[in-house]
Design goal:
The chain has about 600 residues and is α+β, with helices and mostly antiparallel strands. It is about 20% helix and about 30% strand. It is globular and about 75 Å long.
């Protein structure tokens, strides 16, 4: 089955196999406040674990959708589920490997099957896999899967993003998410199989495929790759591989024709996706070893001449900030339909981009952004202190996320640090400046194909885009700051609109002055419609009329600037006590979608927006 036919249901859309089984649903669950579970062997069949509750996976225990909804801090939690043998080892498989995949478990996880430790992982946003083949009890009709998760709310070195470290949510921080919060699923694969697949556009020639195998081939293997658009085969290649990692250049002849190329390029207005099938064969016996399906978009993303460039052409970015927190599921989501709906709503409002804020979103959201045409700024959850442990944890998690998501054409920018969170002394502390610069350069080393921001909002050290956060409620002030080059030069030389210097290094200031790092207002607005006491917003309005008028004036002021290459409005939806959304927390727009579209774009929209 082609990836595009699975409609975003597969938890890992870039690398699909036909046979897989979801383990989402009801599990046994228990708190371990005394941290006694491992000593008492809760992971074993005969263990005395206090699995006294039921939980709906993948919703965290703090979320109402989990069936628990308890928000008090519990640093250690346990999960247990019995799995039929046929789910892990389907009939007819003899030499395959049985894998259990975890989309995300916050923050440290240990996994046992039938009492045997099969996986350990650190990183609350990154996927990991347990090979349980050798742990399965022989002859058993079912198997016992147990997961221990540890998430210390007091550990400020641990990347947490918008998860509050205080007992109750305050300001712009929300409820915690502990344990499993993305899908758990299983598949059976051949002993030699594809473990990772990446696509890197190589305009105007084609694409570069990076194929990773489970182990070094005992003898040469053939890797066949076929790229197609509908029923039309665009390119196919077969190459011998002798190592576990291969980089395969695939020429797409149609890209050489400048006219045909336009029909193949991915962009929000025409999000063309190519299907890809990768087959691994024994080169001597010509026996198929493994087959996976994928997809890719051919496009380039960059900067130059004071503009953001998409496919080497200036492209004005109209973005909205999305916290990715939902009332019933918190960091998790209710499934692919909800994720598709969010992408559709963002586009219906007139935005062509979204900034996922302080989290790495479910890959199925990125699938819908790829398929429906929405640019994405990839971000990660910040730690809240600087030190050796914080640097190590965030760097490892960030690089794993870049590796996970780099094949999605929708992602056009990387943001490893936001507003100096976890590095609050960048202007004064050389170590923190080195950290910021190093993160940007490490990102470029793993993925040189996209712009990177060394810090988002202020205190830039080596950013490809000069992102500025400006929450003034005065449209005239926006005009005075960004109306011409001389005005913004004064802002750049001063304290910045939020009282934080914008460019810390001389190199950063020079990059902006030369047009090498375009200016974007990457957070602004934050308007609330009739907020109550105790709710957070940057600016309150007293009526729908006032709200619409001020919203329109702020957007118009930025669109009129000859310097601003794009913007990001705060925010998509009201989240917990933060009421700056264009939507209420239940998803209802605060203004008609047609009105929001007109405000965001400055033009009438003749398309019929989706019903709410």
């Amino acid at each position: 089955m082609r990836a595009s036919e699975q409609e975003g249901a597969y938890p890992r859309p870039i690398l699909c196999r036909e046979q897989w089984s979801s383990l989402d649903g009801t599990w046994d669950f228990g708190y371990d406040d005394a941290d006694a579970g491992e000593r008492q062997s809760w992971f074993a069949e005969e263990g005395t674990g206090a699995f006294d509750r039921k939980i709906i996976v993948p919703f965290p225990p703090e979320a109402p959708a989990s069936g628990i909804g308890e928000t008090a801090p519990h640093p250690v939690v346990w999960y247990r589920r019995r799995i039929p043998h046929g789910t892990l080892a389907p009939a007819g498989t003899t030499d395959g490997r049985s894998l259990i995949h975890f989309g995300a478990v916050d923050h440290r996880a240990r996994v046992w099957l039938d009492g045997r430790l099969v996986a350990e992982h650190v990183g609350g946003q990154t996927p990991f896999t347990a090979d349980v083949t050798d742990a399965m009890r022989a002859g058993a009709s079912e198997h016992l899967l147990v997961v221990r998760a540890e998430d210390d709310p007091a550990d400020l070195a641990q990347p947490r993003g918008k998860q509050d470290w205080q007992e109750r949510p305050h300001a712009v921080w929300y409820e915690r998410t502990t344990g499993i919060w993305q899908s758990v699923w299983t598949e059976t694969v051949p002993a030699q199989h594809v473990t990772d697949l990446a696509w890197i556009a190589d305009l105007p020639r084609g694409v570069l495929a990076e194929v990773t195998l489970a182990r070094t081939p005992a003898r040469p293997l053939a890797v066949d790759i076929v790229l197609s658009l509908g029923d039309q085969v665009l390119a196919e290649i077969s190459t011998l591989v002798r190592t576990p990692r291969s980089r395969i250049h695939i020429v797409i002849p149609a890209l050489r024709n400048g006219i045909d190329r336009e029909d193949l390029l991915w962009r929000p207005e025409t999000p063309t996706l190519l299907d890809a099938r990768v087959t691994v064969r024994d080169a001597e016996a010509s026996v198929v070893v493994d087959t996976v399906d994928s997809y890719l978009g051919v496009r380039s993303a960059g900067v130059g001449g004071g503009a953001f460039l998409l496919n080497d052409r200036p492209y004005y970015v109209r973005s909205v900030l999305n916290q990715g927190y939902r009332p019933d599921t918190l960091l998790a989501n209710s499934g692919t339909d909800e994720l598709r709906r969010e992408v559709e709503l963002i586009k219906a409002m007139g935005f062509n981009a979204v900034r996922i804020h302080q989290k790495a979103e479910d890959p199925r959201f990125l699938y819908w952004a790829d398929r429906l045409g929405l640019l994405v700024w990839g971000e990660t959850a910040a730690a809240y202190e600087f030190g050796t442990e914080a640097v190590e944890l965030l760097t490892r998690e960030w690089l794993d996320l870049v590796r996970r998501d780099r094949s999605h054409p929708s992602i056009v920018t990387w943001v490893p640090i936001n507003e100096s969170w976890g590095a609050s002394e960048i202007p004064r502390d050389p170590a923190q400046r080195h950290y910021s610069i190093a993160l940007a350069n490490l990102t470029r080393a793993v993925d040189p194909s996209r712009p990177v921001l060394s810090n988002e909002g202020w205190e830039h050290t080596d950013s490809d885009i000069l992102g500025v956060h400006d929450y003034t409620a005065d449209p005239d002030q926006l005009t005075r700051r960004y109306g011409d080059a001389a005005s913004f030069d004064a802002v750049l030389a001063g304290g910045g609109p939020q009282g934080r210097v914008l460019a810390v290094t001389r190199r950063q200031a020079e990059r902006f002055a030369s047009g090498d790092a375009p200016l974007m207002i990457t957070e602004f607005g934050g308007l609330s419609l009739r907020a109550d006491d105790g709710e957070f917003s940057y600016t309150r309005t007293s009526s729908e009329t006032q709200y619409a008028a001020l919203l329109g004036d702020l957007f118009a002021a930025l669109r009129a600037s000859p310097l601003v290459a794009g913007f990001c409005y705060t925010q998509f939806m009201d989240t917990a006590q933060e009421t700056n959304g264009l939507l209420f927390a239940d998803g209802k727009p605060k203004l008609p979608l047609e009105s929001i579209h007109r405000i965001v774009t400055g033009v009438e929209d003749d398309r019929r927006p989706p019903a709410v």
